[in-house]
């Protein structure tokens, strides 16, 4: 028999309404409130305890609330935490997400919740927590509980969790490959989609386009003649022999090369390992990718304070934002306290 | 213009005295076959090996894949490539079906691929469903193998086409079991929507011939989009490149059998009026990308299209060509569906393509270029397993904090889908899609 902990607020925990919203967490044995209707829907699992906490208390005294709840849970054995459902209640939804995230991190036990799509808890926690799509008011309790129960039963049984649409949770922002029935080949799907589009019937793209947030452009350097510039390149030009084994595509690390005392780069000493373009120009003249001569000239003319002696090189070919952001963070970590004013980013 | 393809199924490949086909059994005379593929003596240590579906076999690095075919009537099977340049798309071909000729080398490289005939990879590529007759070889000239990230593999590619042409001579004078016929009959009186297929060819290089797709044997790197008769594509006018990662590349076998092209033919006169194939490119500069997008839309408009399907050749900078072209097509009122892959990074959380434009509101996701896959050791290796760590495959790594090295001491591999031969199947083979989790 698996063990489940339920988390609910003061209202569903039958402590009180808004006037009891600052109620500290309490631990009750067995299911309470919605747990009573949920219990019979769980397969080979028992709600052993219910944590009840006031919405305001959790919201305003988060750390104390978590400490108290941690104290409740640390001596209990449990396989899953279910929070809510929270419907369109903003504080409650946020708290459900928060407790789920905390329990997963602290106890390495899965935690799930359920709320309405416009509940602010969705955007705050969907990336970390399975949040099932629920109704917008408590009148939908009878519909939401079976969703929670079905998903809880799957998790407890160790069944594979399918994609968001199929399971009814809000996507955690992860795209992954799914193998379909052999008859559903891409040619059939493309043709069917085109026919619907031509007839003006509704169709559903398989690759929804979500435009990522734009990175704001940095303000200009106030006094370039006093500024130290760092050169970073995704163009894939590295010292001959590729000493850092940077891959030709989907690179996840970079090489650092010290150019102290050098004024130019010679063909034959540098090479491109980038898989995505014609190497003829880069190999014949590495300065096309790493404009060291131009930097030196600007230094001599006093137009820039100086070029940071080390350059950072990787391959941008077929790379993901995740890899790019990770590399950028590592570079920034290496350069802490180096007083860099601006970065010149070269590409392929 | 009518193309007849007479099919001869192959269920078994044996080696023997005489190259012949009988009741589904292809017998191959080794010496003759090797002499045919290595006609100019540029390859050495050539060996032939057969890999069957379901076998515990790993093939790597795969350079090119071709379906064996013989063009009747005295013309070469691949005009301008294995013989003189002459029109393709009309006449009769005899084809050995259910098999391929696979060129396998010793040295990996940026574009190279790996194929397992069983295990988790086999479910993800149509090439694991074929009996693959592999020739393994090395270049005589060591310069051809070494020192470069990108290899032209010219000798291997030509040899694969020559071997394909040679093998099919065995059925030249026999009666096909099954016929396929392709003709764009005039159906304009039926007033069906006119639909074009846009195929993005590999045209990555700016200065140098020898890497990209071939059109009538000529490198397409400076090509401007053109209108082809669909039969030309099926009949060897377009041959594969040495670029584009193995997971995304259209090999010659794919052009010969392009599933979405055949699907549009099947529907011609029933639900659509198939207008033709527009071949497009991967522009190496922004103006060339934009010019190609405009050219594709103008051609489609000129031939009176209502709809189009755009088969993309992968991800990366060619996403720009993909979105720009779909944008131009939609701008002139041609309803378009895009076929391609997604590449959201190994953890699946990055944007799905290098460029994004909501104008592409109808896309078929044929696979995940970054899908990480764990592959068990295989009993037999065709090619060189050491190439995984020594050379530069696109989806393999020497060391990774999370996954460790791609090749493990027991012969198992962890890598991503860029290295899986035929993985994305964006020409229509793929029975995979992408979902949000």
Explain what the structure shows:
The complex is a heterodimer of chains A (348) and B (437). By secondary structure, chain A is an alpha/beta fold. In chain A, helix 4 links the parallel strand 4 and strand 5 (111-115). Helices cover 32% and strands 19% of the residues of chain A. The mean pLDDT of chain A is 95. Chain A has a six-stranded mixed beta sheet with strand order 2-3-1-4-5-6, sandwiched between helices. Chain A has helices at 34-38, 55-60, 62-73, 90-107, 120-125, 141-157, 164-167, 186-199, 280-284, 292-300, 321-334; strands at residues 2-9, 26-29, 45-53, 80-83, 111-115, 130-133, 175-179, 228-233, 237-239, 255-258, 270-272, 306-307, 310-313, 342-346. Chain A has two domains: 2-167, Rossmann fold, CATH 3.40.50; 224-346, no CATH class. The relative contact order of chain A is 0.09. The radius of gyration of chain A is 28 Å and the shape is elongated. With 437 residues, chain B is α/β, with parallel strands linked by helices. Chain B has one domain. Chain B is built from eight helices and 25 strands. In chain B, strands 5, 6, 9, 10, 11 and 23 form a six-stranded mixed beta sheet that branches. Chain B has a six-stranded mixed beta sheet with strand order 16-18-13-19-20-21, sandwiched between helices. In chain B, strands 7-8-1-12 form a four-stranded mixed beta sheet. In chain B, helix 1 packs across helix 2 and helix 6 (286-302) runs parallel beside helix 7 (318-331). The N and C termini of chain B lie far apart (48 Å). The mean pLDDT of chain B is 95. At the A-B interface, helix 7, strand 7, helix 8 and helix 11 of A face helix 5, strand 20, strand 21 and strand 25 of B. Strand 7 (175-179) of chain A pairs antiparallel with strand 25 (432-436) of chain B, so a sheet runs across the interface.
């Amino acid at each position: 028999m698996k063990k489940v902990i339920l988390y609910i607020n003061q209202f569903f925990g039958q402590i009180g309404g808004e006037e009891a919203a600052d109620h500290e967490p309490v631990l009750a044995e067995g299911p309470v409130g919605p747990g009573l209707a949920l219990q019979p829907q769980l397969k080979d699992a028992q709600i052993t305890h219910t944590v009840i906490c006031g919405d305001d208390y959790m919201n305003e005294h988060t750390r104390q609330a978590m400490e108290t709840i941690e104290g409740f849970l640390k001596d209990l054995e449990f396989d899953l935490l279910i929070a809510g459902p929270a419907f369109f209640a903003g504080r409650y939804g946020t708290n459900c997400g928060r407790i789920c995230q905390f329990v997963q991190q602290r106890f390495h036990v899965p935690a799930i919740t359920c709320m309405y799509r416009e509940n602010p808890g969705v955007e705050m926690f969907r990336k970390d927590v399975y949040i099932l799509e629920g109704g917008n008011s408590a009148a939908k309790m009878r519909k939401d509980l079976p969703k929670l129960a079905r998903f809880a039963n799957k998790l407890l049984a160790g069944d594979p969790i399918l994609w968001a649409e199929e399971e009814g949770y809000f996507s955690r922002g992860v795209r992954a490959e799914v193998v379909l029935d052999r008859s559903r080949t891409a040619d059939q799907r493309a043709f069917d989609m085109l026919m619907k589009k031509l007839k003006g019937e509704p169709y559903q793209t398989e690759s929804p386009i979500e435009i990522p947030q734009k990175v704001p452009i940095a303000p200009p350097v106030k006094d370039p003649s006093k500024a130290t510039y760092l050169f970073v390149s995704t163009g894939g030009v590295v010292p001959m022999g590729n000493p850092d084994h940077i891959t030709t595509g989907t690179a996840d690390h970079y090489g650092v090369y010290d150019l102290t005392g050098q004024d130019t780069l010679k063909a034959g000493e540098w090479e491109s390992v980038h898989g995505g373009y014609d190497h003829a120009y880069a190999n014949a003249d590495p300065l096309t990718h790493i404009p060291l001569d131009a930097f030196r000239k600007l230094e001599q003319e006093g137009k820039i304070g100086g070029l940071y002696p080390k350059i950072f090189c990787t391959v941008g070919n077929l790379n993901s934002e995740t890899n790019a952001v990770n590399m950028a963070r590592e570079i920034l970590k290496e350069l802490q306290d180096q007083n860099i004013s601006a970065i010149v980013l070269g590409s392929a | 213009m009518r193309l007849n393809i007479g099919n001869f199924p192959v269920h078994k490949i044996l080696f023997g005295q005489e190259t012949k086909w009988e009741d589904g059994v292809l017998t191959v005379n080794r010496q003759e076959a090797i002499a045919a593929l290595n006609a100019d003596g540029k390859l050495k240590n050539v060996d032939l090996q057969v890999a069957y579906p379901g076998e515990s076999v790993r093939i790597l690095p795969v350079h090119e894949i071709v379906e064996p075919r013989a063009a009747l009537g005295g013309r070469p099977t691949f005009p301008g490539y294995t013989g003189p340049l002459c029109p393709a798309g009309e006449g009769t071909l005899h084809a050995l079906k259910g098999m391929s000729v696979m060129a396998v080398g010793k040295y990996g490289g940026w574009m190279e691929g790996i194929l397992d005939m069983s295990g988790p990879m086999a479910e993800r590529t149509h090439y694991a469903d074929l009996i693959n007759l592999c020739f393994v070889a090395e270049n005589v000239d060591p310069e051809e193998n070494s020192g470069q990230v990108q290899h032209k593999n010219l000798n291997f590619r030509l040899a694969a086409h020559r071997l394909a042409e040679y093998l099919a001579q065995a059925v030249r004078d026999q009666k096909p079991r099954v016929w396929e016929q392709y003709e764009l009959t005039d159906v304009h009186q039926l007033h069906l929507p006119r639909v074009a297929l846009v195929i993005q060819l590999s045209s990555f290089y700016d200065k140098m011939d020898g890497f990209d797709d071939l059109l009538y044997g000529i490198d397409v790197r400076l090509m401007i989009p053109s209108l082809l008769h669909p039969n030309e594509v099926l009949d060897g006018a377009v041959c594969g490149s040495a670029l584009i990662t193995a997971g995304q590349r259209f090999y010659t076998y794919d052009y010969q059998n392009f599933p979405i092209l055949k699907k549009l033919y099947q529907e011609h006169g029933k639900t659509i009026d198939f207008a033709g194939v527009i071949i497009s490119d991967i522009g190496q500069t922004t103006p060339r990308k934009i010019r190609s997008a405009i050219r594709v839309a103008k051609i489609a408009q000129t031939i009176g299209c209502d709809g189009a399907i755009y088969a993309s050749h992968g991800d990366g900078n060619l996403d720009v060509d993909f979105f720009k072209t779909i944008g131009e097509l939609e701008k002139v009122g041609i309803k378009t569906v895009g076929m391609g892959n997604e590449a959201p990074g190994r953890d699946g959380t990055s944007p799905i393509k290098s460029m994004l434009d909501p104008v592409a509101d109808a896309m078929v996701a044929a696979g995940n270029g970054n899908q990480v896959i764990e592959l068990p050791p295989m009993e037999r290796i065709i090619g060189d397993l050491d190439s995984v760590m020594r050379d530069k495959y696109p989806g393999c790594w020497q060391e990774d904090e999370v996954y460790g090295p791609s090749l493990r001491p027991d012969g198992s591999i962890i890598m991503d889908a860029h290295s899986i031969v035929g993985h994305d199947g964006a020409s229509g083979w793929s029975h995979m899609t992408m979902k949000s989790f």
